[in-house]
Amino acid sequence: MNPFAHRKDTYTIEEVLNSRMIADPLTLFQCCPTSEGSAAAVLCAREDLAKYGINESRAVSVAAAVLTSGDYNGRGADHSAFSPYRTEPAAIQAYEMSGISPEDVDLVQVHDAATIGELQQVEALICCLLERPGKGLWRVARP
Fold first, then answer.
1. What is the gyration radius of the CA atoms in the chain, in angstroms?
2. Total number of domains in the chain
3. Calpha distance 142→110 (Å, rounded)
4. Which domain holds residue 71?
5. Is residue 87 assigned to a domain?
6. What is the pLDDT, as a whole number, of residue 133?
7. What is the DSSP code string of the chain?
């Protein structure tokens, strides 16, 4: 068990599925509790690597960076900025910008605040065909 986990108890599948409904079909134990986290990426020009003491062989090149947001329809965004509906257009732009395809991707890290989130994001990144849901994680884990 993860000593840093929000929930340290063990739950049966039945307990998870029968926990209080949060947003149909997601139940309480299928959703991440309120939490905070952060991540950072330090970016610099290749010519500045030595200036910051970074060994060039350890540096990672950024092949593409894309930002999208939901459309405004007069009542609010049509989809959450974190939804797969925004991920797929960003992924397509990033693949085009970088010159790579989903088949070239060996590893993805996605946000999954609910049980369905990881699969939605992996599918939206076009790591698997939408007609074959659930194959994306397998494909990423076993190219």
1. 19
2. 1
3. 17
4. 63-141
5. yes
6. 54
7. --TT-S--S---HHHHHHSPEEETTEEGGGBPPS-----------GGGTGGGT--GGG-----------PPB-SSSBSS-TTSHHHHHHHHHHHHHHHT--GGG--------SBTTHHHHHHHHTTSS-TTSTTHHHHHHH--
Report pTM.
Answer: 0.66
Distance CA 62, CA 76 (A): 33
**Comparison of pLDDT for 100 and 77, the residue scoring more:** 100
Do the domain assignments include residue 113? Answer: yes
Let me know: does 7 contact 29? Beta carbons within 8 Å: yes
Token pair in block for residue 118: 């990881």
Task: With a cut of 70, say whether residue 78 has pLDDT above it.
Answer: no
Q: How many residues are recorded in the chain?
A: 143
127 in Cβ contact with 136 (< 8 Å) = yes
pLDDT tens digits, residue range 12-29? 999 999 999 998 889 999
| 33 neighbors 6 (Cβ within 8 angstroms) | yes
Distance in angstroms (rounded) separating the CA atoms of residues 30 and 15:
10
**Inter-residue contact 118 to 112 (CB < 8 Å):** yes
